[in-house]
Amino acid sequence: MEEIASKVCRSNASVHHDVLCAAANPHWADFEQQARECGNEYYLLAARALAADGSESDAWAAWADYAAPPWWETMRRPAYSDSSASCTGEHSSRSSSPVFDSEDKASLDRFFRDAVRSQTADMALLLQRVLECSAPGVESLPAKELSAEALGRLMGLVRVNAMAVVAASDDLAPFAASSESGSSSQDSSEAPLARGMAIYAVTSAMNHASDANCFVASDPSAPQRCLVQTLRPVVPGEELCINYLQGSHYTEEQRREVLQQQYNIH
């Protein structure tokens, strides 16, 4: 007997099982493996979004009002320096002079974006195969919907609109308990937590401000909603703003770079 985590899971089981289950759709296993080899979870998130909305006549209707730049325009290429010190991905403790001039850097930027666009095109073909071999309601999606540009924009939409969330559900408790295999390290009365990303219309409509007058948070007891609270008194007519990088550990310089590259905020 299949175990369903909640009533919501049960209502969506036919779509998600037919599309995103390797046993029901072997092509999904190929797509998932390739996405993980690329080290990019956004491919999986985009596939889940299409699986959820694929039964609609317009698979993109739910996202029509959201900013959706191609995801290769929301990220930076890896930076290079002439430092002789070994580097394992962390920032060097000392600055070094750049190896490339502005023309060289522009050329590298174009090369990086072209490579990412090409990778996205390959993943779009794999995802098209997944959908074509799934439920009739999803396989009717036209091929043009899965162009590299369309998939790239869906991934970009997630990058610039999603926020981190924590969800707790009593429905998951039996499954968490069985996975503990009798371990007493977790209080049996404590509901398990699931961490991930979610897109909320209200936060997507709010602009960024370093001195934000509001902050947002997920409600573990109601993950389908988010909380927007003021940080100080707000006068009538004042715009409500949030800090997009709230809670992050970036330096001021890194914050400026992320805001400029990912959100086009200068």
Automatic annotation (TrEMBL):
InterPro entries: H3K4_H4K5_MeTrfase, SET_dom, SET_dom_sf
Any coiled-coil regions, as ranges: none
CC annotations in GO: nucleus
SET domain ranges (all copies): 194-244
A UniProt-annotated Pfam family: SET
Protein name, UniProt field: SET domain-containing protein
